[in-house]
What does this fold into?
Amino acid sequence: MANSKLMAFVIVAAMLLMPSSVVAASISISSVSLPATVNQGDTFTTTMSVSGSSVSSVSGTLTLPSGLSCTPTSSQTISLDSSGVGTGSWSCTASVAGDYTNQITAGVSATDSSTGSSVSDSKQSGLRVLSPASLSVTSSIVAGSV
It folds into this structure.
């Protein structure tokens, strides 16, 4: 009987000391914003909005096709506010005209604060880069008789 009371006490104590719930870590890209169209040679800003919970070491990256370049070129740290929302921005240049629809990959990764494992998300985006307009003028003089 004493052993069963001791066992019951140990079980109740273990249950009270056990965390009541484990919150799963999450990170996601809410949006990627950039212009739909730019002209060749233009500079534009790309902004990624992320949301997460129970994470640390949040970083964002852009994977680009040739013809587009952005700085920073490597990943950048994204700080989440108290509500778990943050943004990262890149300054980009369109050096080659073309249709880059769905050719930009925005990625975010973070570390689960409880387990240390990685969590991540990615989203495709893109834009069109137009060739600059050109104008050509030709003139000629016709020789006439006087």
